[in-house]
């Protein structure tokens, strides 16, 4: 167990990361200390870095897509042992006693603790979390690519479980980026007919290679009109305002438009098309620990991994700019060289 952690931190909103050292204090009885091997970069890291959501505390250490090895355990931890390779995502703790936690929906706990909210994350040589949110990594998964599964991956996998998406369903995915590309891979392996909504024909071949059976150009109103009443489920991974009524119209009766993209503006939809065809609009956060482990098992069984680019952690500022510029294909993973 380390008495001093070495990390990269921003001292203010939109400021570059710089070397930062802090003392974590005594290891909690239910906590696990992880030696970080790699950590993905997520758009949520950028939002927190820039304080877009108004809840960032500085100095701020990003990083909530951690893969590493257990190096220390509190007295009341379970199932894990020193040396286990594990992953850690957006959540690092939950109360364990509310109705949501007791029903297996710990991701809906009103007091769930974010790994980078009010605490220091995985752009560091060590990170800590409660054992319930630390997941053993199946040996079949490539540890160097697995980090983004713990945020982006579970974000798009969770709705498949929560809403009972069936292998016989026709499913559309809006936004073929860091989240959307993983949704295509999961849904293809799930057995669905998968359609990628793309904003340009230039992404068509990429979408097909990632798992889509076909594509629709979301800027082509004629294509979208022809797709009316043909989807059982549409998953939005984009964080921009779209013509939501067009996508509602593309759903079959009892179909669902579900968003995991953090759209900041109100989503304006007409009530009548939803009422008359019993369609739904919904959203969800990441999944529970149990759903995370189901996802990991599914990914291992079907050889699913995020498509990643790699940077040394010491070059995290360059990696962040690469992500900001929209050039990432499709997730970025930092390999730890801070030791």
Give a short summary of the structure.
With 339 residues, the protein is of the alpha/beta class.
CATH homologous superfamily placement of the largest domain: Medium-chain alcohol dehydrogenases, catalytic domain
The number of strands is 17
Helix content: 25-40%
Poorly predicted tracts of residues:
none
Under CATH, the topology of the largest domain is which? Quinone Oxidoreductase, Chain A, domain 1
Count of folded domains = 2
Main beta-sheet strand count, sense and barrel state: 7 strands, mixed
Q: Kindly provide the name of the CATH class of the largest domain.
A: Alpha Beta
Number of helices: 11
Q: Please tell me how large the radius of gyration is.
A: 20 Å
- CATH architecture title of the largest domain: Alpha-Beta Complex
Annotate the secondary structure layout.
Elements: E1 5-9, E2 18-22, E3 31-41, H1 43-49, E4 66-73, E5 85-88, E6 91-93, H2 99-102, E7 113-114, E8 126-130, E9 134-136, H3 143-146, H4 152-162, E10 170-174, H5 180-190, E11 193-198, H6 204-210, E12 214-217, H7 221-226, E13 231-236, H8 244-249, E14 251-259, H9 271-277, E15 280-283, H10 289-301, E16 308-312, H11 316-324, E17 331-335
Parallel strand pairs: 10-11, 10-13, 11-12, 13-14, 14-15, 16-17
Antiparallel strand pairs: 1-2, 3-4, 3-8, 3-17, 4-5, 5-9, 6-7
């Amino acid at each position: 167990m380390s008495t001093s952690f070495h990390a990269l931190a921003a001292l203010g909103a939109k400021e570059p990361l710089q070397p930062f050292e802090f003392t974590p204090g005594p290891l909690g009885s239910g906590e696990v200390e992880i030696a970080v091997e790699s950590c993905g970069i997520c758009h949520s890291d950028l939002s927190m870095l820039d304080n877009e959501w108004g809840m960032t505390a500085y100095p701020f250490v990003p990083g909530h897509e951690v893969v590493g090895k257990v190096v220390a355990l509190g007295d009341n931890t379970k199932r894990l042992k020193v040396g286990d390779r594990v992953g850690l995502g957006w959540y690092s703790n939950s109360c364990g006693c509310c109705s949501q936690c007791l029903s297996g929906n710990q991701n809906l706990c009103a007091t769930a603790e974010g790994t980078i909210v009010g605490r220091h994350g995985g752009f560091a040589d060590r990170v800590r979390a409660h054992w319930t949110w630390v997941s053993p990594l199946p040996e079949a998964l490539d540890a160097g690519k697995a980090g983004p599964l713990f945020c982006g991956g579970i974000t798009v996998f969770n709705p498949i479980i929560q809403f009972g998406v069936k292998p016989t369903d026709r499913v559309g995915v809006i936004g073929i980026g860091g989240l959307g590309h993983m949704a295509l891979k999961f849904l293809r392996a799930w057995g669905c007919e998968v359609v990628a909504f793309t904003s340009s024909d230039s992404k068509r071949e990429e979408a097909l290679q990632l798992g889509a059976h076909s594509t629709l150009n979301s800027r082509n109103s004629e294509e979208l009109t022809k797709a009316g009443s043909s989807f059982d489920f549409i998953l939005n991974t984009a964080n921009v305002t779209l013509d939501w009524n067009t996508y509602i119209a593309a759903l079959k009766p009892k179909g669902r438009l579900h968003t995991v993209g953090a759209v900041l503006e109100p989503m304006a939809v007409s009530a009548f098309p939803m009422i008359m065809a019993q369609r739904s609009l919904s959203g969800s956060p990441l999944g529970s620990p149990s759903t995370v482990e189901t996802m990991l098992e599914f990914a291992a069984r079907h050889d699913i991994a995020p498509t990643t680019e790699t940077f040394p952690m010491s070059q995290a500022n360059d990696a962040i700019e690469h992500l900001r510029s929209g050039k990432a294909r499709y997730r970025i993973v930092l390999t730890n060289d801070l030791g």
